């Protein structure tokens, strides 16, 4: 099969289009013919080596964390899917590789594709949808009447999280450029801060939950926007001891992550708020619940551009500019 391969960890390194063996099918796996693959900043960060201590891959490896396609074969213990099913997924860490013609995935990571979405639209959903769900529903327990600040509202996670937060009954604030204000308001944002003109710290106060996706300076400023007892959940770091335990990291890495997050955890404690880091995980059952929200019209995909498979490197470079409105997708088939 054709696949885009990272031959080594290298910052801004180009992926190589190569012939690779078809993935091995385990008993609990489905083999999926890839029709479309979402492109994420996580792919760039993995290629650059930013996560090689936490999520190691042995080069050469195939990148890609989002997929929509058709099941062509099912393992002997698979019960939920059969050949011909249209599915989508975020394959689990250690088994990624959607920039390819085929991928084998554990059926627990997979869900039936929303019937009202194209393959390209469906491929834009899993990683950002699961991230938003795990932050807002699982970690924050966001409730009706609460106030949530979702940073970078026009990005992939932001466009999905705004819609989910409104569905949960929250008041939603976000940041966006003047050019993207109309987009985030159309998704349900109640308060939009133009980050080029205004300082969100001076505009927003008394929030219950903040979803941080930006740099360390923004993370620290976010503490001052929360009410006492509020929750600051970061999807951009620094990783905390809870994450280290969940990943089953060795003692040295646990100590490193504890030290990396020590500063923000201390400041959060002094401010009377809770800090945690979330690195989203594959979860087919959660994705099925997201499917229901999409099919009933509660949430719609927001897509910027679709690239042909041959231009996967160009798609990755475009995502790295940070200018995409919503998601970027590669059409494989």
Automatic annotation (TrEMBL):
It comes from the Bacteria. SUPFAM superfamilies: GroES-like (SSF50129), NAD(P)-binding Rossmann-fold domains (SSF51735). Residues 13-330 form the Enoyl reductase (ER) domain. SMART domains: PKS_ER. InterPro entries: ADH-like_N, ER, GroES-like_sf, NAD(P)-bd_dom_sf, YIM1/Zinc_Alcohol_DH_Fams. PANTHER family: ALCOHOL DEHYDROGENASE RELATED (PTHR11695), RETICULON-4-INTERACTING PROTEIN 1, MITOCHONDRIAL (PTHR11695:SF294). This is NADP-dependent oxidoreductase. The lineage of its organism: Bacteria, Pseudomonadati, Pseudomonadota, Alphaproteobacteria, Hyphomicrobiales.
